[in-house]
Write a structure and sequence with these properties.
Length: about 250
């Protein structure tokens, strides 16, 4: 996916905030980067993003792959993020979900099978599966879907994307131990009908975090922030207002 996953949000967000949206390395429109593959490597790159844009204590929104990334960053850089909205992800301990999700995380054979088809074919299969389980209430536009496919059909990027999931067996057990130190206010949201990544992952994360709240996005599937944008965005805005003391 890419920053176009938030296209329904831009106008309302920009009315109240300075908005910076970035495709992480190997995702969306960003270039391949073999040196930025694991969760920890992405967390270190997030620091470069904040420094580049001179962002001091920003509010972070990053469900799915953004969740373990920002959790690792907040554990290593306490106080740098003012609040975070995350979810729809496996991030702590042993991840739970559909067989395919668990296979992508824990089975090198499955990851190799996807890569063996090559970028154009493997990437299209990757996106087709994602789109089939990602939405229940809505569908992305043809332009947006084409952008998603373009972000995964280059072999180097697809390899790195699968490598990100391959880092979970090392990264998520460490995060299970480290998130208890995160004092930053965190909102954990999860699609009610996410059949790909189990809601148990978000509930477990919420239970471990010392300063968090959890909510289901009613009716939404895995890509809850895009599937139910109004509900999700209203929760983001309310959470930020609360953190800011508005």
């Amino acid at each position: 996916m890419s920053i176009l996953t938030y296209e329904h949000w831009w106008e309302r967000l920009s009315q109240a905030f300075d908005v910076v949206a970035v495709d992480l390395p190997n995702h969306g429109g960003s270039a391949p980067a073999r040196h930025v593959t694991t969760v920890s490597q992405h967390a270190r790159f997030l620091e470069k993003i904040l420094d580049h844009f001179d962002l001091s204590h920003p509010h972070f929104i990053g469900p799915d792959v953004g969740t373990p990334t920002v959790l690792r960053f907040m554990a290593d850089q306490p106080g740098r993020i003012k609040s975070a909205t995350v979810g729809d992800a496996g991030a702590v301990g042993k991840v739970e979900g559909a067989l395919l999700f668990r296979a992508l995380v824990y089975s090198r054979l499955i990851r190799l099978a996807i890569l063996s088809a090559g970028g154009p074919i493997g990437g299209r299969l990757y996106c087709a599966v994602a789109n089939s389980i990602g939405y229940r209430l809505t569908r992305p536009s043809s332009k947006t879907k084409a952008d998603y496919r373009a972000g995964s059909t280059q072999f180097a990027k697809l390899r790195a994307q699968s490598g990100f999931l391959a880092s979970y067996p090392n990264e998520t057990p460490a995060l299970e131990q480290d998130v208890v130190k995160i004092e930053t206010p965190v909102q954990v949201l999860h699609g009610e009908y996410d059949t790909f990544v189990s809601v148990k992952n978000s509930q477990k994360l919420d239970a471990l975090l010392p300063n968090s709240r959890f909510a289901l996005i009613a009716g939404a599937a895995h890509y809850a922030w895009e599937d139910a944008p109004e509900d999700y965005l209203s929760r983001v805005l309310s959470f930020i207002d609360e953190v800011e003391g508005v």
